[in-house]
Amino acid sequence: MGDYYLGSDGTMLTSIVTPAGYRVDASGKWIYSSPEETIFGNFIQNGEYKQYIADWYADPAKYGYLDIDGDGKKELIITSDGVFFYALICSADLQSGEVTVLDNGYYYGSLRYSEKHHALVLTDVRPNSMMGDYAFVEINGSGMDVKFHLGWDATEGERYYKDKTKISEQEFSEYFKDLKELDYM
Questions:
Q1: What is the pTM (predicted TM-score) of this model?
Q2: Distance CA 9, CA 17 (A)
Q3: What is the pLDDT along the chain (185 residues), one digit of tens a residue?
Q4: Which end of the chain, N or C, is surrounded by fewer C-beta atoms within 10 Å?
Q5: To 10 degrees, the CA torsion angle through 39, 41, 43, 46?
Q6: Which among 97, 65, 61, 64 is positioned nearest to 81, based on CA atoms?
Q7: Any idea where the domains of the chain sit in the sequence?
Q8: Contacts of 102 (CB under 8 A, 6+ apart)
Q9: Do 99 and 84 form a contact (C-beta atoms < 8 A)?
Q10: Is residue 112 within 8 Å of 120, Cβ to Cβ?
Q11: How many Cβ atoms from other residues are within 10 Å of residue 5's Cβ?
Q12: HEC-encoded secondary structure of the chain
């Protein structure tokens, strides 16, 4: 009974961060969260993220929590929808409760996660393209840096690269075995 949240109009809230900063799932049930998720919930609920998306052409559509660097603390990822999309990636300081923006970018393609490499994978492969790029991006201090690039080029036959070094198709495909879609709310 106490695991559900009603809005001010008496209807049950679903798939949202409530005004009190709690996350509820699609059925309206409270999702017990980590300390950083509580900080991020308030960051979202209080509209603090809005100062970072003023230049976005599309409104944020979804958000999720993910331990990108494998340190046991989750980061917040807010994205817009579409083939071209924006992403705001933040970390939380558990002592101060402060949120730090690690990246605020405009991307083409998709955003996935490599647990093996502790990296977000930004895909830039356009329809009917003869070339593709996959940037494996990691947290570096208070920002995000490209750990390495994978690419392919079909302009003169199929060629595969890690950074600028040619690799085999099999080596190339090994990097994609563990990629996961993000679990957005």
A1: 0.79
A2: 16
A3: 567 777 888 888 887 766 665 667 778 877 767 788 889 988 998 999 999 999 999 999 999 999 999 999 999 999 999 889 999 999 999 888 899 999 999 999 899 999 999 999 998 887 788 999 999 999 998 899 999 999 999 988 889 999 999 999 999 999 999 899 988 88
A4: N
A5: -130
A6: 61
A7: 1-32, 33-181
A8: 75, 89, 90, 91, 139, 142, 143, 144
A9: no
A10: yes
A11: 19
A12: CCCECECCCCCECCCEECCCCCEECCCCEEECCCHHHHHHHHHHHCCHHHHHCCCCCCCCCEEEEECCCCCCCCEEEEECCCCEEEEEEEEECCCCCCEEEEEEEEEECEEEEECCCCEEEEEECCCCCCEEEEEEEEEECCEEEEEEEEEEECECECEEEECCEEECHHHHHHCCCCEEECCEC
Whether the CB-CB separation of 65 and 40 falls below 8 Å is answered with yes
CB 8 within 8 A of CB 20: no
Count of beta carbons in the 10 Å neighbourhood of residue 54: 6
Length of the chain: 185
Measure the CA–CA gap between 76 and 99, rounded to whole angstroms: 9
Chain centroid to Cα 22, Å, comes to 20
